[in-house]
Design brief:
The chain has five helices and seven strands; from the N terminus they run βααβββββαβαα. It is an alpha+beta fold. It folds into two domains: 1-91, Roll (Structural Genomics Hypothetical 15.5 Kd Protein In mrcA-pckA Intergenic Region, Chain A), CATH 3.10.290; 93-136, no CATH class.
Length: 136
């Protein structure tokens, strides 16, 4: 028997689906992996991907070296543009300032400038010039 729960404010929404809709993760699978890895705390406790989230819930999200301390304001039935997704939650001022400071420090140190993977056309030309100079 296939039972459907009506989506109204009291029903809540799956945590993994909300994180995806709020654009913290590109896919629900990545959100699920983060939740299972202990990177998401709900009301100060580890959670499961299917845990229902309601407006007013307090979440702490750890992603890479960044941390968000947020309060859920609304639920979303589908993924919307980033401007609309930002309306689903409110980040604490201390969290926002801490995250911006960390990003600024990383930018100053040049950590974000590192490009893994294949060299660009410009990189390739610089490599060729360098290796040609060594041959002569």
């Amino acid at each position: 028997m296939n039972r459907q729960v009506p989506e109204h404010e009291g029903a809540g929404q799956r945590l993994d689906k909300w994180l995806w809709a709020a654009r913290f993760f590109k896919t629900r699978q990545l959100a699920t992996e983060a939740i299972n890895g202990g990177k998401i705390e709900v009301e100060g406790q580890r959670a499961k991907p299917g845990r229902p989230i309601r407006p007013g819930a307090h979440l702490i999200i750890h992603k890479d070296s960044l941390t968000w301390d947020i309060q859920v304001l609304a639920l979303a039935t589908q993924r919307r543009p980033a401007a609309e997704a930002a309306l689903l939650y409110e980040e604490t001022e201390a969290s926002r300032l801490r995250r911006q400071e960390l990003v600024r420090e990383r930018r100053e140190l040049g950590i974000l400038a590192e490009r893994p993977g294949r060299p660009t056309k410009r990189d390739r030309r610089q490599i060729e010039r360098f290796t040609e100079g060594m041959d002569s």
